[in-house]
Amino acid sequence: MIVTISISGLKRTKWWELLLRFVLGGLVTAGAGELAKRLGPGFGGLFLAFPVILASSVTLVQKHEREGKQQKGMNGVIRGRQAAGADAAGAAMGSIGLIAFAVCVWKFLPGHNLWFVIGGATLAWAVVCVMVWYFWKCNFLRRISSAS
Amino acid sequence: MERKLTDIIVRFFVGGLVVSAFSLISDLLKPKTFAGLFGAAPSIALATLALTVMKDGEQYAAIEARSMILGAIALFGYALAVSHIQLRFRRSALPVALVLLIFWIGLASGLWYVMVS
Description:
The structure holds two protein chains of two kinds.
Chain A: E1 4-5, H1 8-11, H2 15-39, H3 41-44, H4 52-71, H5 77-108, H6 114-137, H7 140-147
Chain B: H1 2-28, E1 29-30, H2 32-35, H3 43-56, H4 58-89, H5 93-116
Helix pairs in contact in B: 1-3, 3-4, 4-5
């Protein structure tokens, strides 16, 4: 399946949903900083990977899919829950990229330019998670096992 | 005290903006599994790393990043669990996502405890 950009997804997003994400993102970011100050960077660092977007996005994806189906006269409850599951499966693949991001920052930050490290680590995240998604989409592992 | 409050406010606004930006990108993309990749974007880290380096130094930020690896492993487990429950049992997403946050905290803390001991 080809990746597409759809403006209709944005049209379904309401102002309070944007505000909710902004507040949640802000609270977790400020909270992670405070935790690192109080409990040390070792424990506080865990919260740099806190699933804040995922928890809110699966809920909103389910809602949007259900409403889309209901506008067409269908129930949409099951479809919404399946869409939330697909969104979370994507996040599981994205978290492998997040591990690559964290390894890059951990290994290269001391002694190197901050902005190069952040840029390179973000690129590593994007490349790794897109590759994992692509191989998953192509049933890469199944093809290898069937070939052998 | 005033500097501490300013630091919290700056983190709140920068964090909110970065998380919202990744969420909007995610809303634009199809299929859902590809859009879901942005559910694990390094948004909090991007919002906070530069501030941390400027205030506490590179070594402090590197220690945070090392722990972030464990947090990301826990996120992998969390996302798999949410996906499995949603696709197999078709429960409502909000309670599943909220209850499993306890699972993420437990797994991340457990991995961190194993690492330090």
